[in-house]
């Protein structure tokens, strides 16, 4: 036998033994076997994901699909150290401690405080007594194969298929053993589906029958569709809500019933459905309720001794209060219930939602009183405190570097009795931004600012009163913000005085949010440029590339911004697919197309005319309760059409960093395939110098990330990022002969941009502390478009340590290595 074959066999045996240990086989008792894997064999028209969710028993969780189950080791590590009696004794000691404290005081406040602390600690100790110590709760015991649970899973599959219209299905399961490892394979044979052939309605109440027939287009039960039990539950819910919107306040879904006739034309697998709506047994008919009165108590929880609430009517609504704190003209815009109208569940919920959206009340409760032969709507609202101070200190991470900050905020509600809100916010912090001309000097970047905002719960516009009531259901708001921002970075000091006014509103289903900023003004002043940065600007200007230097001159920026945000299925939830889409269009300097900016020039201020568009699309796809696949596509362009061909620096696009392409340092990727300058210290930093920020006008990037819960509050992730930035115009550069020539490598070109997509990969950890998520990512370059063609795939050159390049002795370098990039962030990258 060859030595190489012996080595291969020995390695295979060693790997098998090692994996068995990693899988927790050693924790099995005699005659027990480990449930290693479960698979489902089903036709394409059957959702395997739905079937997997029906497993009674599950294998131990593996890390990113590898045959390694560290949670088992964690569990038994904790079990060896677990002493249940210790927690029982500790629980008794806690109960005695707080019982003694409660007995030793007569203060009701202290008693309530002691009771709260006692219950909180007892609940925690009960968790340890019932579920083990923290290691056992983070881990999981070894999954011992149970044949009874496999049989029960098989029965679940049969029930599932029956509910999906496959009445004559067949499900079997097969067991495969490899030592102590068991694999269960379920084979699903659904057979032919049954389809709905006829739909009949059995509704004695003709008024209800008209409602059902008039809204049949929205029915979940459709002729010629496959029978699906889930649709019957959805239809019962739809009919219940529909009928309640037509005034039937006490209608209940218990009156709705379905009869299924599977004998109807059986040879053709057809189903007849009879939808029945029964009448109440006692009354004998369904009553339609019309609102007689609407009462609104605005200060529930307030108590004024020896005084009764004042009642005042406005738009047929009776308002009750101790003190007249609200403009009833404004408040009534958010109430959609009116005397003389039939009861509507939708209008009731809309009233509750819109009153909650104005941030004036702690809670809103609406109930209906049917006593005395009347149908009265009662709205109860508890006001929020008029004044509020908040302080916040923490660490922010914006471009991969942490920095402390302190926020202080003051809020005054109901400023003019129209539920307006005034906010005053101050902030000071060391922003975690990389230097624009160096990879060092991070902590010298300081930011301070103050903002004052006034928010109105309506559009500040001369609309007619009728239109204001019509728009109120879309949660309209007008917000004016004035601010001052001071930024001190290693390269420059920058101040911005800004003012903007924004309208926001939502769609009726609250899945879309619109924003329109017709007035966005800013005066920007940049001073104290560092010699290095000043030289960079001058060099670019000398080459005829004036865009950058114009961005750092004293400037006046004005623009109009319109944005739409879609949030579908509550983006980020762990139960079902969800989407987040944000698009924004900005027109800068639009007014200078109509009037002359001469008076701006008189103040020696730079002005800009530009168009800017951005699109951010995100999606999360839960694969199971512990694993999520997340996607992102982020793109945009900004085009200047003013004489200076410049953009404000804040309006440029950048790529690279903890929320972008993580294999590149913040703002250092691109543009295009432009080659960065050679590094002054290749041995330590690599062959190329990525110290200069790369502002550009076109952005295209995409990411995919697999997230999996590891244990406790620790989650892991692997990711692939791809993207780059480009410019619209070719930049001027100095060639080897000292001549100024155009460099088109940074310019966007439709026939080569796809070759200039930088690709990075990596892995990371997310620490979910509930109140925040701390993220640590390691990024590695895969494809670097800045390198010469033929040398752009660099994953094999990535190194976590050792010199990045070696000196040849003649001033050149060989054996270069790509440094990994470490990113720290707060929250998910997307």
3D structure, described in words:
Helix content is 21%, strand content 35%. It is of the alpha+beta class and 830 residues long. It has six domains: 102 residues, Roll (Ubiquitin-like (UB roll)), CATH 3.10.20; 49 residues; 83 residues, membrane protein fhac (Ubiquitin-like (UB roll), Roll), CATH 3.10.20; 91 residues, Ubiquitin-like (UB roll) (Roll); 117 residues, no CATH class; 147 residues, no CATH class.
Strand content: 35-45%
Secondary structure tally: strands: 34
The general outline is globular
Kindly name the structural category: alpha+beta
Q: How many angstroms does the end-to-end distance come to? A: 54 Å
Q: Roughly what is the average pLDDT, rounded to an integer?
A: 88
Number of domain modules: 6
Q: What is the count of helical runs? A: 16
User: What is the alpha-carbon Rg in Å?
Assistant: 34 Å
| Poorly predicted spans | 1-5, 7-20
Proportion in helices: 10-25%
Summarize the main sheet. 17 strands, mixed
Please sum up the structure shown.
This protein has 830 residues and is of the alpha+beta class. 21% of the residues lie in helices and 35% in strands. The protein has 16 helices and 34 strands.
Reconstruct the topology from this structure:
Layout: H1 3-22, E1 34-41, H2 48-52, H3 70-79, H4 84-103, H5 108-131, H6 134-138, H7 147-163, E2 170-178, E3 181-189, E4 195-203, H8 206-214, H9 229-244, E5 256-261, E6 270-277, E7 293-297, E8 310-314, E9 317-321, H10 328-331, H11 345-357, E10 361-369, E11 376-383, E12 387-397, E13 402-413, E14 421-430, E15 446-456, H12 465-471, E16 477-488, E17 493-506, E18 512-527, H13 531-542, H14 547-551, E19 555-568, E20 578-588, H15 598-602, E21 606-607, E22 610-624, E23 627-640, H16 682-685, E24 698-711, E25 714-726, E26 731-734, E27 740-743, E28 758-768, E29 773-783, E30 798-799, E31 806-807, E32 813-814, E33 818-819, E34 821-826
Parallel strand pairs: 1-3, 4-6, 7-9, 7-11, 19-21, 30-33
Antiparallel strand pairs: 2-3, 5-6, 8-9, 10-11, 12-13, 13-14, 14-15, 15-16, 16-17, 17-18, 18-19, 19-20, 20-22, 22-23, 23-24, 24-25, 25-28, 26-27, 28-29, 29-34, 31-32
């Amino acid at each position: 036998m060859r030595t190489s074959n012996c080595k291969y066999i020995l390695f295979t045996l060693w790997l098998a033994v090692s994996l068995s240990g990693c899988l927790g086989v050693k924790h099995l008792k005699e005659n027990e076997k480990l449930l290693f894997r479960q698979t489902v064999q089903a036709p394409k028209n059957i959702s395997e994901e739905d079937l997997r969710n029906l497993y009674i028993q599950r294998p131990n969780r593996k890390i990113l699909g590898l045959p390694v189950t560290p949670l088992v080791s964690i569990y038994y590590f904790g079990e060896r150290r677990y002493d249940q009696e210790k927690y029982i004794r500790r629980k008794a000691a806690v109960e005695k401690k707080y019982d003694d404290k409660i007995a030793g005081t007569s203060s009701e406040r202290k008693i309530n405080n002691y009771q709260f602390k006692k219950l909180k600690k007892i609940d925690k100790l009960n968790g340890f007594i019932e579920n083990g110590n923290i290691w056992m709760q983070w881990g999981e015991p070894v999954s011992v194969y149970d044949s009874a649970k496999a049989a029960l899973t098989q029965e679940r599959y049969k029930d599932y298929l029956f509910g999906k219209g496959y009445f004559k299905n067949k499900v079997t399961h097969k067991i495969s053993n490899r030592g102590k490892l068991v694999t269960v394979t379920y084979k699903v044979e659904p057979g032919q589906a049954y389809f709905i052939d006829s739909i009949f309605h059995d509704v004695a109440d003709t008024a209800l029958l008209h409602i059902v027939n008039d809204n049949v287009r929205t029915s979940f039960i459709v002729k010629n569709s496959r029978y699906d039990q889930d649709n019957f539950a959805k239809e019962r819910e739809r009919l219940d809500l529909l009928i309640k919107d037509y005034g039937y306040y006490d209608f209940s879904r218990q009156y709705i019933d379905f009869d299924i006739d599977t004998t109807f034309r059986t040879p053709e697998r057809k189903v007849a459905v009879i939808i029945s709506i029964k009448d109440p047994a006692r009354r004998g008919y369904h009553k339609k309720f019309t609102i007689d009165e609407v009462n609104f108590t605005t200060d529930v929880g307030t108590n004024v001794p020896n005084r009764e609430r004042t009642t005042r009517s406005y738009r047929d609504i009776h308002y009750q209060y101790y003190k007249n704190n609200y403009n009833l003209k404004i408040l009534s815009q958010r109430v959609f219930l009116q005397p003389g109208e039939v009861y509507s569940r939708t209008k009731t919920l809309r009233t509750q939602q819109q009153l909650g959206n104005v941030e004036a009340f702690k809670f809103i409760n609406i109930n209906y009183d049917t006593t005395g032969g009347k149908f009265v709507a009662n709205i109860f609202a508890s006001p929020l405190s008029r004044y509020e101070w908040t302080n916040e200190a923490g660490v922010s991470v914006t471009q991969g570097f942490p920095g402390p900050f302190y926020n202080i905020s003051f809020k005054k509600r109901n400023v003019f009795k129209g539920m307006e809100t005034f906010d005053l916010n101050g902030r000071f912090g060391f922003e975690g931004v990389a230097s624009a001309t160096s990879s060092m000097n991070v902590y010298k970047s300081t930011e301070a600012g103050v903002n004052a905002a006034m928010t109105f719960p309506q559009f500040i516009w001369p609309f007619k009163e009728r239109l204001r009531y019509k728009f109120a259901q879309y949660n309209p708001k007008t917000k004016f913000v004035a601010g001052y921002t001071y930024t001190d970075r290693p390269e420059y000091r920058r101040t911005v005085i800004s003012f903007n006014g924004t309208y926001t509103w939502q769609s009726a289903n609250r899945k879309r949010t619109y924003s329109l900023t017709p007035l966005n003004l800013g005066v920007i002043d940049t001073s104290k440029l560092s010699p290095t940065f000043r030289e960079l600007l001058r060099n670019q200007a000398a080459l005829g590339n004036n865009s950058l230097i114009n961005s750092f001159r004293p400037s006046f920026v004005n623009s109009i911004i319109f944005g739409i945000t879609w949030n579908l299925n509550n983006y980020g939830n762990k139960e079902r697919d969800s989407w987040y889409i944000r698009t924004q269009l900005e027109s800068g300097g639009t007014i200078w197309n109509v009037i002359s900016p001469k008076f701006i020039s008189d103040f020696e201020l730079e002005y800009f005319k530009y168009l800017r568009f951005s699109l951010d699309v995100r999606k999360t796809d839960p694969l199971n309760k512990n694993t999520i696949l997340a996607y992102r596509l982020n793109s945009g362009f900004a085009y200047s059409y003013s004489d200076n061909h410049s953009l404000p620096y804040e309006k440029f696009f950048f790529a690279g960093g903890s929320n972008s392409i993580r294999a590149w340092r913040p703002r250092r990727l691109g543009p295009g395939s432009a080659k960065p300058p050679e590094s002054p210290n290749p041995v330590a930093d690599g062959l190329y110098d990525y110290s200069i920020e790369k502002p550009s006008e076109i952005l295209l990037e995409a990411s995919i990330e697999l997230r999996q819960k590891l244990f406790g509050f620790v989650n892991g992730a692997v990711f692939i990022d791809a993207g780059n930035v480009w410019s619209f115009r070719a930049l001027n550069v100095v060639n080897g002969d000292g001549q100024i020539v155009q460099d088109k490598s940074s310019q966007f070109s439709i026939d080569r941009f796809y070759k200039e997509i930088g690709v990075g990969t990596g892995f990371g950890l997310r620490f979910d502390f509930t109140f925040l998520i701390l993220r640590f990512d390691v990024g590695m370059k895969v494809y670097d478009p800045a390198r010469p063609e033929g040398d752009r795939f660099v994953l094999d050159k990535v190194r976590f340590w050792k010199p990045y390049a070696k000196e040849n002795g003649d001033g050149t370098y060989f054996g270069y290595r790509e440094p990994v990039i470490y990113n720290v962030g707060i929250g998910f990258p997307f």
